[in-house]
């Protein structure tokens, strides 16, 4: 890995570049249509501390990776971290940047009182092996959980119904 890579908390000046990488990640995952928020909403949510972000920065100031995480609550475990995104530019994968971003983000959650972390990984993503090497457990295999989500349109419909 380039010894000139710094992992640091994202600042407001980084959010446009992080948003651009978020769009790169959605394209990599073959799900570009899933990005429903605007850059302005993403920036507003960052300012309002809806999430935490770390970035990997080269010595020339160019960002080459990021994470986005937030806290959730488990009635069994208390505070837990939800890692929403981790991304490293394709040409720098396998150099240790992802590992440093992941560990830095996990440590930040731990310092904030989180007892564990969870995240989603597409079954075809080669990073599955990477996460297992870092101690992650696939709870789909181990605990037979299914992850459900009320999608945006259905969420709005549900929340605006007269029931």
UniProtKB/TrEMBL annotation:
N-acetyltransferase domain location: 5-154
Name the Pfam families on file.
Acetyltransf_1 (PF00583)
Name the domain of life. Answer: Eukaryota
Q: Does the keyword Transferase apply?
A: yes
* CDD domains listed in its UniProt record: NAT_SF
Q: Which GO terms describe its molecular function?
A: N-acetyltransferase activity
Instruction: Fetch the InterPro entries from UniProt.
Output: Acyl_CoA_acyltransferase, Diverse_Substrate_AcTransf, GNAT_dom
Alphabetically sorted, this entry's keywords are: Acyltransferase, Transferase
Q: Fetch the PANTHER family from UniProt.
A: DIAMINE N-ACETYLTRANSFERASE, GH14572P-RELATED
Q: According to its UniProt record, which protein family does this protein belong to? A: Belongs to the acetyltransferase family.
Quote the protein name from its UniProt record.
N-acetyltransferase domain-containing protein
Species assigned in the record? Phyllotreta striolata (Striped flea beetle)
Q: What phylogenetic lineage does the species belong to? A: Eukaryota, Metazoa, Ecdysozoa, Arthropoda, Hexapoda
